[in-house]
Amino acid sequence: MNRIHAWMLTTAVSMAAGGIGTHALAQDAKSVAPKARPAAGKAVPVADVGDGDLKKLIALSFHSKGPATLDGVLQQDPMQQACSQYPDRTSVPEPVAKKIEAAEIRQVKYPADGKYLGDWKVGEQIAQNGRGMQFSDPVGGTNGANCYACHQLTKAEISFGNIGPSLYQYGKLRGNSEAVIKYTWGKIWDSNAFSACSNMPRFGHKGILTEQQIRDVMALLLDPASPVNQ
Ligand code: HEC
């Protein structure tokens, strides 16, 4: 998002700066802004605005609160920096994707005790729970995973998103070989290890879920008694 309407930036900056207009970004924006906002119906001039300008703008208007911090918004790790160069993950060049996946798979931590499966009933609660890491959540509180926001998992739950593929009958269809178990753990730990620039959160790597919570979600997907596999 390097090209934005200069007058929109000017407006947003003056709002964020409380109309004072003396902030460095406001001055930068003025230097690229047209003299006056164009009349309705006229083409809107655009100007190149760099990532640095946008970062300054976000820093002006976003206030850290609870677990939702400004650093969390602005600090990008190498994978996020690489993925930010592409508008959607289907446009990531193959060599870039391969490099990201290779780096991310090295970050996956498999359970030291070799126990991959927990309690699917707890896993179902975690999959249903969309709380955590928002400004209104406690710092260090227990997070949910909100898997249903993107995936179908069971037949009983009829409200689910479809950004991700249906995971209904995941274990029944794939079995529970060591390869399947390790892939599934790795996918939940760090989704980008298997598909660069994935929309799916990196639950383990980013500390969203604990190791035990991942075991419980694993059981939801793979336990033959889980409603996912009925
Ligand atoms: C914000 C959306 C989102 C959330 C939340 C999400 N996922 Fe995903 N997931 C995706 C997308 C998109 C894909 C497909 C692209 C990819 O592989 O990354 C995917 C792929 C997967 C796959 C691989 C499927 C396959 O065919 O190999 C698994 C397993 C999975 N998700 C499990 C989960 C679990 C378990 C949760 C909750 C702990 C979860 N996801 C939460 C978006 C999401």
From TrEMBL:
Q: Name one Pfam family in it.
A: Cytochrom_C
InterPro entries according to UniProt: Cyt_c-like_dom, Cyt_c-like_dom_sf, Thiosulf_SoxX
The question of whether Membrane is a record keyword is answered with no
Keywords of the record: Heme, Iron, Metal-binding
Q: Does the keyword Plastid apply?
A: no
Q: Which residues form the Cytochrome c domain?
A: 118-225
- Gene Ontology molecular function: electron transfer activity; heme binding; metal ion binding
Q: Supply the NCBIfam families for this chain.
A: thiosulf_SoxX
Write down what this protein is called. Answer: Monoheme cytochrome SoxX (Sulfur oxidation)
